[in-house]
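REQUEST FORM: STRUCTURE PREDICTION
Request ID: SP-0412
Submitted by: Lab K.M.
Chain count: 1
Length (residues): 214
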Amino acid sequence: MSSIDKLIEIGSKALTNESPQSTQLLSEKSELSKSLKDLLEGKNGFVAFEAALVVFPSCDIGQTKGIESWNLQSGWRNGYADCLDPETIFFAHDLFGVQFGIEGDRVVQFNPETGELTTYANSFDEWASVLLENYQADTGWPLAHEWQIANGQLLPHERLLPKQPFILGGEFEVDNLIAIEAECGMRNWATLYNSIKTASDGEEVSVSGWLDCR
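STATUS: Completed
RESULT:
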C-alpha cells in the first residue's frame, strides 16, 4: 500500500461524496496537480489525526472551505502578498493553520506565523510518507488530542490559535489555545506577521485583540 493510500485509509470519511469537479485549480497539468486531483477522487476532503490535519474538499461544504475558496487571492492570502506565489495551491493544513501546498514540482509547507515557505516533499506519496512518519510534530496531533479531551470536538472548519502567539513567547499548551474559524485564523496570523515584519528593531509588538475576527 502506498503512503498516500494509507493516509486516505486512516482518515475520516470524505467530507463530501461528490466527485471533484474539474475546476480551474484542479485542471492544472503538472504532475502534482494531477496527484492532488487523484487524492480528492480517492476521498474528497477528510480529517486525520483527530482533526489535527484537514485535507480540503474540492468545493465548500458547510463552513469548511473548498480548495477554490481557500486559495482566493482576495482571502487570507492577501495578507501574504509579499511572500506567496499566486500559483501556489494549498490543499491541507495542520492544527495551527500551517499550510501544505503544491508549487511547481514540489510540495511545500507554509508557516503563517513567520511567513516562511519551505520544501516538504517532491511528490504526494513522499508528502504522505513524511507526514505519517512525523505526524506528531507535523500535524500537532498531541495537542489536538489533549485540547479535545478538555474542550470537545474540533470541527473541520476550525483551527487552534494561541492566545499568546508562539513567536512572542506563548506556550504550546492546551490552556494557551483557542478554537477559531480557519479563514479568520489565517487573517489573524497575517496581521501578526505583518506587524512583526514592519516593526522597528526593539519595538514591542502589540497582540491586544489579535484573535478578533477580521
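NOTES: The beta strands are 46-48, 53-55, 89-93, 99-103, 106-111, 116-121, 158-162, 177-181.
Reviewed by: T.R.
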